[in-house]
Design brief:
- The chain folds into 3 domains: 266 residues, 2-enoyl-CoA Hydratase, Chain A, domain 1; 176 residues, Rossmann fold (3-Layer(aba) Sandwich), CATH 3.40.50; 175 residues, N-(1-d-carboxylethyl)-l-norvaline Dehydrogenase, domain 2 (Orthogonal Bundle).
- The chain is 50% helix and 11% strand.
- It is built from 28 helices and 19 strands.
- The site of 1,4-dihydronicotinamide adenine dinucleotide has 22 residues, from helix 12 and helix 15.
- 3-hydroxybutanoyl-coenzyme A binds next to strand 5 and helix 3.
Length: 705
């Protein structure tokens, strides 16, 4: 095994290379190795200065995130942080100048090590950041104390509370780094270190005072930071604790400030928020791994794409391809439909330009990648076609048969269907290995989730290609099985069932929505449906009635049907679950909906009562976990964490709660099972515990290992 830290000498400069693939995380031995290397360089008469650099594609990307799971108590955390802080101080005490040479990313502990060096040289395309809050913690290796000393409180607060990395020009201008490398980074850093070495110029970040000298300005930045967070960081504590720690850098000396950081870090690392966010970090990456699709499965190059159907979804999907620089044909039935589709796309991009999110040049370039068409000309050059025509089986089957005729044999044929059986299209195409579901979420150009639906005969190459493509499109791809509604919509049916029934039992529309937004969702079920359209759900229910199916087990509330019959489709008609003033999206509660719910409840013999918010959350979350368990036992999702990823990216489920399956684990599966049984007793037999839920409880396990 190669050394974690290599020691070489060039031109009287010691080069310490951290070599801990894939991202040089500070796993066991890394920090120790750096300290040893610095000590060796200090004792080496042939060395005047030291450069610290990362091997491979990046500098140090931070602490090894797996370690946080081992810090179960404050005491364990405090002991570990004390060791780390002391080690970094000893490194900073080097008598010979230390220069960090940063390429790729210096994140979290990586930036904290770089700041413990005396100087920093940065590749022009590198980034530095303190993304710890995205893991429910604060910088814990001195970052909250050293960063404000380099760049002042305001930027330190911005970096430590938003977690967004900063590019080289900004880092240089702010004083976080000392130099943007010209030419080869290592050569440049060695040259820089030689000059500092000749002058024996050491500069300890912890001794700098200039940028924090104006205490009032610093404290004002803390107050402003807290005010912003009060509006933007609902339900999480880590960003607030980061401000507290930075405030300590302004008001206490370095050592006392570091002590405060250790204490606040310990509060965070032992929290459920941290456990949930760390779970989501690994869940995102696990989702890209499909057990029977090996890493070396051939991936087809996607250089050209085509989309069929220039409606709501097709237009958004074409934008995804164009945004990723992939030329895309956009086909619809006639000129008018294509023109409408292109006009919507243009309007979306123009709004991005108006908001400063897109340059006029990028607008022109991106628009030119989308070619509208009403014919199949040029389809033979496409590497993938995504079908997004109306949700109609016959139409889709005809479309797939046509696509098989006009595309090359290797072309992937993807469908954006939300409910139909892709195996039927696969057979209609005559090349089922190439057929796969690409279920985008609306608006397709915004929502990050891509459910990749695997049919009976979908090839491994098509799956591997879809996963790689998802990443290229900036999406999170999750492979799911071909059941009704796949994972996301199958579970949402249970979420909606409970919401409707709670309404009939006596809860209010804004009460249900309010309880769920308080829980952390961006919008509750009724507000969401007013955006998506009550007519959309109605059409699906009609289709199911014809085929004798139900979206979810149990009583089918007819409240949404009554709204549909009244022409209340949601925001687009000015009324749905709420009322809307012309031109406004403000939700105004409408007592009429409550009357409809009462009348439907009477028809079904439901006695109305006062429902409390706790019951709303408990009923809805239990329904999600139970159905999720069923999806797992039937094999339509690979692992519980995939369901969490689907929910967080598809419906804005709060990441700091960890997704519905992780949340169930935090509640405790015995409690979840007891609730299912209680509801069965109280509400009816349709509340059946999933076999997997019973099995896990019997074995004393959770959904996640
Ligand atoms: N610890 C452990 N594993 C890590 C890791 C880390 N800090 N960062 C990345 N990995 C792993 C990933 O899990 C993945 O493993 P896998 O291949 O087995 O799934 C592998 O490294 C590659 O990661 P990505 O797929 O994310 O690679 P990318 O090239 O897309 O992105 C990156 C690279 C930008 C560095 C991204 O991995 C990233 O953002 N990592 C996390 C950075 C971070 O949050 N750092 C702060 C950690 S907390 C900290 O430092 C606390 C300190 O204050 C004490
Ligand atoms: P839409 O009605 O907005 O657009 C459908 C488009 O397909 C129309 O422009 C129509 O002219 C066109 N079309 C119909 N037949 C065609 C043909 N033979 N060749 C070319 N174009 C044809 O519908 P929407 O909402 O975009 O839905 C499309 C698909 O995406 C459906 O399968 C739907 O279930 C699915 N979907 C919809 C979501 C949504 O929120 N709207 C979310 C996820 C999936």
């Amino acid at each position: 095994m190669p050394d974690l830290i290599r020691y070489d000498v060039r031109d009287r400069v010691a080069i310490l290379t951290v070599d801990n693939p894939p991202v040089n995380a500070m796993g066991p031995g890394v920090l120790e190795g750096i300290e040893d290397g610095v000590a060796r360089a200090n004792a080496d008469a042939g060395v005047d200065a030291v450069v610290l650099v990362g091997a491979g594609s990046t500098f140090i990307a931070g602490a090894d995130i797996k370690i946080f799971g081992t810090l179960k108590t404050r005491e364990q955390s405090l002991a570990r942080s004390e060791g780390t802080h002391a080690r970094l101080k000893r490194i900073e005490d080097s008598a010979k100048p230390l220069v960090a040479a940063i390429h790729g990313n210096a994140l979290g502990g990586g930036l904290e090590i770089a700041m413990s060096c005396h100087y920093r040289v940065m590749a022009p395309d590198a980034k530095v950041g303190q993304p710890e809050v995205l893991l429910g913690i604060i910088p814990g290796a001195g970052g909250t104390q050293r960063l404000p000393r380099l760049c002042g409180a305001a930027l330190a607060i911005e970096m430590c509370t938003a977690g967004k990395p900063v590019p080289a020009p900004k880092a240089l201008a702010a004083g976080i780094v000392d130099r943007a490398a010209v030419g080869n980074l290592l050569d440049d850093a060695i040259e820089f270190a030689r000059a500092k070495g000749a002058a024996r110029a050491v500069r300890k970040t912890r001794d700098l005072t200039d940028k924090i000298a104006d205490r009032d300005a610093g404290l004002a930045a803390c107050a402003a930071g807290r005010k912003t967070l009060a509006a933007t960081a609902k339900g999480v504590q880590a960003p607030f604790k980061a401000v507290d720690a930075i405030e300590a850098a302004l008001t206490l000396g370095f050592d006392a400030g570091s002590g405060r950081e250790r204490s606040l870090f310990a509060d965070c690392v032992t929290s459920t928020e941290c456990r949930a966010l760390v779970h989501m970090f690994f869940a995102d990456r696990e989702a890209a791994k499909v057990p029977d699709v090996p890493k070396d499965t051939p991936v087809l190059a996607i250089a050209r794409a085509a989309v069929i159907g220039a409606g709501t979804m097709g237009g958004g999907i074409a934008m995804c391809y164009a945004n990723a620089g992939i030329p895309v044909l956009l086909k619809d039935v006639d000129e008018a439909a294509v023109r409408r589709g292109m006009a919507t796309i243009r309007k979306n991009y123009e709004s991005s330009v108006a908001k400063g999110r897109m340059t006029p040049e990028a607008f022109g370039r991106t628009m030119s990648l989308i070619t509208p068409t009403t014919a199949y000309d040029d389809f033979e050059r496409a590497d993938i076609v995504v079908e997004a025509v109306f949700e109609n089986m016959d139409l889709k089957k005809t479309t797939f048969a046509e696509l098989a005729r006009v595309t090359k044999p290797a072309c992937i044929l993807a469908s954006n269907t939300s409910t139909l059986d892709i195996d039927e299209f696969a057979q209609a195409s005559g090349r089922p290995g190439q057929v796969i579901g690409h279920h985008f979420f609306s608006p397709a150009n915004v929502m990050k989730l891509l459910e990749i639906v695997r049919g009976r005969e979908t090839s491994k190459e098509a799956i591997a290609t879809s996963l790689a493509l998802a990443k290229k499109l900036g999406k999170v791809g999750v492979v799911v099985g071909n059941c009704f509604g796949f994972v996301a919509n199958r579970m949402i049916a249970y979420y909606m069932r409970e919401a409707y029934l709670l309404l009939e039992e006596g809860a209010g529309v804004s009460q249900v929505d309010g309880a769920l937004t308080e829980f952390g969702l961006p919008v509750g079920p009724f507000g969401m449906q007013d955006i998506a359209g009550i007519d959309v759900g109605w059409r699906i229910r009609q289709h199911l009635k014809l085929t004798g199916q139900k979206r979810a087990e149990g009583p089918q509330s007819e409240v949404p049907d009554r709204l549909y019959e009244m022409g209340r489709y949601g925001q687009k008609t000015g009324a749905g679950w709420y009322r809307y003033e012309a031109g406004s999206r403000t939700r105004i509660p409408d007592p009429l909906v409550d009357e409809i719910a009462a009348s439907e409840a009477a028809k079904r013999g439901v006695t109305r009562r006062k429902v409390d918010d706790g019951e709303i959350i408990s009923r809805i979350m239990t329904a999600l976990a139970n159905e999720g368990a069923r999806i797992l036992e039937e094999g339509y999702a690979t692992r519980a964490s995939d369901i969490d990823v689907v929910y967080c990216y598809g419906f804005g489920y709060p990441r700091h709660v960890g997704g519905p399956m992780f949340y169930a684990d935090t509640v405790g599966l015995p409690t979840v099972l007891a609730r299912v049984k209680e509801y069965r007793e109280r509400l009816g037999d349709y509340w059946k515990p999933a076999a997997l839920l019973e099995k896990l409880v019997a074995e004393g396990k959770g959904f996640h290992a």
